[in-house]
TrEMBL record:
Keywords: Membrane, Transmembrane, Transmembrane helix
Listed transmembrane segments: 20-40, 52-75
PANTHER family: EXPRESSED PROTEIN
Originating species: Odontella aurita
Record's protein name: Uncharacterized protein
C-alpha cells in the first residue's frame, strides 16, 4: 500500500467530525466573551450573575468553549502540523480564528488591568486568590459597565 493511500482517521478539511451544534455554540460564545472582556476592562469584574446566576453561567460556559477550541486547535497543530479543519461552510475555521482573537483579547484585558490599576480580576466563587494577588474591586471603579449597570 502506498503511503498516500493510508488513512489515519484524522479529520480533513471536507470531513469534519465536529458536530455542527458544537461549532454553532463556539461561534455564539464569542460575543458573550467579548462583552465579558468589556466588563472586565471597564469595571474590573466580569458579567453580573443575572437571574438565578444564568448570565454568569453562560459567561463561564462561553469561556470554556473558547479555551476548549483553542486547546483542541493547539493540540491538533502540535500532533499533525495543521490546525482544525475548516468544517462545513468554514464555520469551524471561523470559530477557531475568533477563539484565538478572544484569547488575545483576554490577555490584552488582563495586561490593561495590571498596567492601569495594578490588579487582576478575581474568579470568585470558583477560585479566590485575593490572598496572593492584588484583586480589582469592581465597586470602587465608578465606571459603569454595559447599559450603565
Amino acid at each position: 500500500m502506498a503511503r498516500g493511500d493510508e488513512t489515519d482517521g484524522s479529520m480533513n478539511d471536507s470531513d469534519s467530525s465536529v458536530p455542527l451544534p458544537l461549532v454553532g455554540a463556539g461561534l455564539a460564545a464569542q460575543p458573550v466573551v467579548w462583552t465579558s472582556l468589556y466588563f472586565v476592562v471597564t469595571t474590573g469584574a466580569g458579567l453580573p450573575p443575572g437571574p438565578f446566576g444564568l448570565l454568569g453561567a453562560l459567561e463561564g460556559v462561553s469561556y470554556l468553549l473558547v479555551v476548549g477550541i483553542v486547546g483542541a486547535s493547539l493540540y491538533k497543530k502540535v500532533a499533525t502540523g495543521s490546525g482544525l479543519p475548516a468544517g462545513k461552510n468554514g464555520l469551524l475555521g471561523a470559530a477557531e480564528g475568533l477563539s484565538y482573537l478572544s484569547v488575545l483579547g483576554g490577555l490584552l484585558a488582563l495586561a490593561s488591568l495590571v498596567g492601569e490599576r495594578g490588579c487582576v480580576p478575581n474568579a470568585k466563587p470558583i477560585l479566590d486568590y485575593s490572598a496572593y494577588l492584588p484583586v480589582c474591586d469592581p465597586e470602587s471603579t465608578g465606571t459603569p459597565g454595559l447599559f450603565g449597570q
